[in-house]
Here is the input.
Amino acid sequence: MPNSFQEIEEGGDESIARFEEMLKKKTSAFFDLDVYENIVYHYIDKNELSKAFKACELAQEQYPYSGLPLFLKAQILLQSGNYKEALKYIELTDSYQPNDPEVLVAKANIYAAMGKHKLAIESAEKVLSFGIERDSIHCFIAQNYLKINQYEKSFAHYKQALLLNPEYEDIFDEFMDFIEITAFHTQGIEFFENAIDNDPYSAISWYRLGVVANNKGDYEKALHALDYATIIKEEYPDAWAEMGCVYMNQKSYGEAKKIFEKVLSLEQPSAEIYCHLAASLEKLKDYEQAFKIYRKASELKENYHEAWFGAGTCLVKMGKHYEAIHFLKRAVKFHKSDGDYWMLLAECEYQIGNVVSCLEAYKEASYYTPYNAVVWLNWSYVFYEQGNTQDAINLLMTGIEDLPDNADLLYRLSAYLISAGKYKQAFGYLENALILNFDKHTVLFDFFESKEIKKALYKIINQFRERDNS
Here is the structure.
């Protein structure tokens, strides 16, 4: 039995056509079991699950003593989200073919989809007990141990998957995600150092050691490892690119720029490397050149939102807010859920006087990043500056529901309430702000020119200081 969707074998199109004709005319036809299997996977691949299920039922009628139609039904039901029925059919398959590895893998997938991670692990580990070592099975077990917070066991299975298939980048990417989630950087470094001890000339092990060390923030170790990787294999674009990222993290932007330019000389240009190079130029304040490189990235990969946002950011830094809006709108089109994108777009709309568009963009920013205090501060200030002080107050109160202990929001709300003449309410929020962060109280005085108000504020602040010191 297959473990993944198959290509239709040669002659398969003819079988599909015969099957379609049979359904259309409501007649019956005989197919070999392996042909039925191909037909089912054809429809699963096209997400035409009702036809796939119909093929399974016909196969079951013609081959009542085979477990394959039941197995295929389970696969269809799993894909459709009907996990309970899928489990029923896979257990029936198990009665026909007990301890079949592919059935056990399918059962494990169903348990995992149901959130029964311990049962999923148990089923997958039974496959390993038969001496069947697959990197995909170890990754699956690792994923499920991660779900139940058993990080050591998860780590052990990721290591085994990498040992079985050290060249497979997808496993390494998943392993790196695990390390970031669990902060197992030290263990990851030890793993690759052991791999290097066993094979000192393994460029890929040196490279991966460099990646883990960079993510940990050990830049000296990262550069050392990546230097070895590029000595062993001089034309190693991934290693050079990672070295550039290390230099960026060290704020050595000139060095990073040189490295990213070298990467472009070693391989076909990619949107990702163009963006890295542009970022280094942006940090060097060469905004015009950075903008040009970001544009090259977006031309290579139209939906690469980082390129559009980077180009927009450069235009903002050059004071070209009107031009920046086009690029920022493209960025949010391709990556709507980034609050930072919406916030910069809002700021640009505000700069050119598009208040309505500005407010709409801030609303989107608050939806995607409700815990970013700057969004609430800037958004409310637009209302305040337009003379809509009550709207500014209401908005900040909404923000404070999400960020009740943010002193910046409380100070700003106090200022708005004072402006609205709501002194008693303002002083209540001001006291909470002083408790949270006394040193930030000076921001209040930016809002008022009245000597009487400033005098009253000084009095309250001094009273709080004296009470706090006593």
